[in-house]
Amino acid sequence: MLDVLSGFATIWIVIGVGWLLAHLKVLDTTGQTVLSRVTFFVGAPALLFTMVAEADVKRIFAMNLVVSALATVASGAIFLLLSLVLWRAMDLPHRVIGTYGAGYVNAANLGIPIAAYVLKDVTWVVPILLIQVLILQPVALSLLDSHSARSTGNKPSMARNLSIPFRNPMTVATLAGLVVNLTNLKLPTVLLDPLHLLGALSVPGMLLAYGISLRLGPMPGRGGQTGPTALAAGLKLLGQPLIAWALARAFGLDQTTTLAVVVIAGLPVAQNVFVWAVRYEKAIVLARDVVFITTIASIPSIMLLSALVAR
Questions:
Q1: C-beta separation of 213 from 277 below 8 A
Q2: Residue 223: what pLDDT?
Q3: What is the DSSP letter of 269?
Q4: Contact, 167 vs 43, CB < 8 A?
Q5: Can you give the pLDDT at residue 222?
Q6: pLDDT per residue over 45-83, tens digit each?
Q7: Handedness of CA 22, 25, 29, 33 (dihedral sign)
Q8: How far apart are CA 221 and CA 292, in angstroms?
């Protein structure tokens, strides 16, 4: 349990540093934007490449991948359908950010320490990481890119939309890592060491930018997005884990695998969702609030879920 609390404590300390830097006026919204862009174009791609290149392929392509993917999509779909009924005037970027806030899990910087303690094996998080960055992330970025292009008067062509995922640095890095993994290609240390070093930028960059936003933006819950925030956070913390549990039972997964998919589904919303919002300058408050709420509330909820499934 101390490992889990230590992982969360580390994350919140870094967020606190970002908050303090903004409070002392060392960094402002410009610094937040720069940190997010460096993470988006440099840090995250390097981290994803090295993680996927070194992952256990047998664990990646297993039934837990199917269950995790279905639970993620189902939770997001529930938000999307309810938002169409409850908030008809909501624009596309807010629907995209809300949908992903209800299901897109923090499989990297939070998933790894939690998997290490609860599941005793960090490779459990790799399947959902692949589903997210290879399929779900390109869909989100394509929608946000298309909306941004239309809002500026640049109507995107079909060819442009289809090529968007392959022009995104995080998607390209993940695909490259998978190729390296499947072909057993041994990269030289002179190449891997810089990639590991650049990948280390990713998590602190995201968290510092998030801390700056907490200080300079409205307090969580005061940004005019109370309903969508509550719905996305509720689905993320309770809906997605319950869906994962039901699917695991339906597919006849063993207790260890069931525990894995439920705990992973209970992870908080990934910082990537906040980075996208900042990158496209849309739904920033919604993304920040959902990340804030789920990151705090996921600590007791994951503990409770683990205890219930392990019974």
A1: no
A2: 59
A3: B
A4: no
A5: 61
A6: 898 888 888 877 776 778 889 999 999 999 999 999 999
A7: negative
A8: 10
Going from the N-terminus, what domains does the chain have, and what CATH number goes with each? 2-309 (1.20.1530)
Strand partners, 269: 105
Q: Which tokens in the block code for residue 229? A: 């925030």
On the CB side of 95, how many CA atoms lie within 13 Å of its CA?
18
CB within 8 Å of 164: residues ≥ 6 apart? 138, 141, 142, 145, 146
- For residue range 172-192, list pLDDT tens digits in order: 888 898 899 989 998 999 999
Element holding 81 (H helix, E strand)? helix 63-86
Rounded distance between C-alpha atoms, residue 202 and residue 81, angstroms: 33
Burial of 256 (0-12, 13-18, 19+ CB in 10 A): middle
Those residues whose C-beta lies under 8 Å from the C-beta of residue 280, and which sit 6 or more positions away, are: 93, 144, 145, 147, 148
Amino acid at 261: V
The tokens describing 225, both together, are 């997005």
